[in-house]
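In response to reviewer comment 3 from the previous cycle, which asked for concrete evidence that the modeling workflow produces usable outputs, we include below a single protein chain processed end to end. The sequence was submitted unchanged, and the resulting structure tokens are shown without manual editing.
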Amino acid sequence: VFEKAKRQLGEYLPDLPYPLLSGLPLQDKHWKDIARNASWQVTRMSLNSFLRHGVFEDKDVTSIVANRLKNPQAIKRARVLPYQLLNAWMQCADDVPVVVREALQDAMEIAISNVPFMAGNIAIGVDVSGSMMSPVTGSRGSATSKVTCLHAAALFAAAILRRNRQAQILPF
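The workflow returned the following structure tokens.
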């Protein structure tokens, strides 16, 4: 099926995994089909690709994407943690529709339920020194994350506090 698809893309996409499809010379209509049918994780990781290929020009597909991103059952099934959503939100191009960016924020709130509850006294020390302004991925040219170590540490602390109301956050 893949070899045939490489030679001749038709009106509809073949039923293949997304990584195989993304390497084909897809047209904007194909990208809309991918957005309609993508898994939750593929949707989260493909927002800028969807933007580049005109997916968000279609209000119905935009709504499908936004609703998928904030679907509580899909978030639970994906076992997504708030950091992955913070990263997706920060990496989103400014032109990604507001409804999609807000869906990521809603998803982050829902994903808090995937953070474990911990019994007992909990103290989280958050390093707030200047070195924490470094990208969480390190400096990797165009692959450098916009998320800093401080963003990640603050989100971690906030998520733990949200699930464990008696936790103490200690910046140092």
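The radius of gyration is 19 Å. We consider this sufficient to address the reviewer's concern, and the full set will be provided in the supplementary archive.
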